[in-house]
Amino acid sequence: MDSLPSTGRMTGAQREELIEQVKQQIAIATAQELLTKISEKCFKKCIIKPSSSLDSSEQKCIAMCMDRYMDSWNLVSKTYSSRLQKESMR
Amino acid sequence: MSLDSFAGQLAGADPQLQQFLQIETQKQRFQGLVHGLTDQCWDICMEKPSSRLDSKTEHCISNCVDRFIDTSNFVVNRLEKTQQFASSSELDD
């Protein structure tokens, strides 16, 4: 890793820049994770027997599968966070 | 390099940055769990993907998440109990 800037002498603008960079890296990592998962899951669901091209029914299936995976992700996130809230009130 | 050790290196150096990293680390931990749970519950609950998430699948997914948390709580509680039992029987000796 590159040498860490000595943050004690960091200006406000430098800090903002660093925060922006970290946020961007996090966004990229999240997108990559989701992309990998979706490809893996939807390939399994939709490509039963790989043929010479991705036919239209497979494409339709993948499109729906992507949307449903994201729905599921959001539902898991919602369920999990409301559960966390309940647990913290106990 | 993990956010955690990065935040550690910055500890005390810049409070604003430190706070930002702590919050982001927490968010990442939460998201990591959501990724893992979505992965598992998808395999358990999803049949052929259709044009919308039907109520049966929705039910299955939210039950799946809740039962996973129940399971992990149960494991922690049981481990605590056996630990307590072990340490109290040590005192008896």
From TrEMBL, chain A:
Topology of this chain in the membrane: Peripheral membrane protein
Limits of the Tim10-like domain: 21-81
Chain ranges passing through the membrane: none
GO-annotated molecular function: metal ion binding
Superkingdom field: Eukaryota
Domain notes from UniProt: The twin CX3C motif contains 4 conserved Cys residues that form 2 disulfide bonds in the mitochondrial intermembrane space.
Name listed for the protein in its UniProt record: Mitochondrial import inner membrane translocase subunit
Lineage: Eukaryota, Metazoa, Ecdysozoa, Arthropoda, Crustacea
TrEMBL record, chain B:
Gene3D superfamilies: Mitochondrial import inner membrane translocase subunit tim13 like domains
GO CC annotation terms, alphabetical: mitochondrial inner membrane
Keywords linked to the UniProt accession: Chaperone, Disulfide bond, Membrane, Mitochondrion, Mitochondrion inner membrane, Protein transport, Translocation, Transport
Entries under Pfam families matching the protein: zf-Tim10_DDP
Major location category of this protein: mitochondrion
Keyword Acetylation annotated: no
Family: Belongs to the small Tim family.
Function: Mitochondrial intermembrane chaperone that participates in the import and insertion of some multi-pass transmembrane proteins into the mitochondrial inner membrane. Also required for the transfer of beta-barrel precursors from the TOM complex to the sorting and assembly machinery (SAM complex) of the outer membrane. Acts as a chaperone-like protein that protects the hydrophobic precursors from aggregation and guide them through the mitochondrial intermembrane space.
Name of the protein in its database record: Mitochondrial import inner membrane translocase subunit
